[in-house]
Amino acid sequence: MPQGVKSNLSDAEKYEKHLKRCIEYKKNKRLNDPEFVKKEREYNKQYHARLREAGIKARIENKLANEQK
Q1: 11, 23, 25, 37: most buried by Cβ count inside 10 Å?
Q2: Concatenated DSSP letters for 4-38?
Q3: Over the stretch 1-55, which tens digit does the pLDDT of each residue have?
Q4: pTM confidence score
Q5: Residue 7 · residue 1 · CB < 8 Å
């Protein structure tokens, strides 16, 4: 939107439109680009592995903190 032009949409509505565009874009990429699907799958695996590691680390730290009390 050009600078100086007032939008009659609230921030929440703008964000909602943005999310819809992102979802639409990703859906089209998935349908038309097998390379994108491979990269996305690999990213998701790495992301979940990092989450698991962080969860395990947090549990160990909690356990140690509880034992020191």
Answers
A1: 37
A2: TPPP-S-HHHHHHHHHHHHHHHHHHHHHH-HHHHH
A3: 456 666 677 888 889 999 999 999 988 888 888 898 899 899 999 999 999 999 9
A4: 0.50
A5: yes
CA 44 to the chain's CA centroid: 10
3-state SS, residue 58: helix
Contact 19, 13 (CB under 8 A): no
pLDDT value of residue 68: 85
- Give SS3 for 2: coil
Hunting for tokens 């990269």 — which residue is that? 39
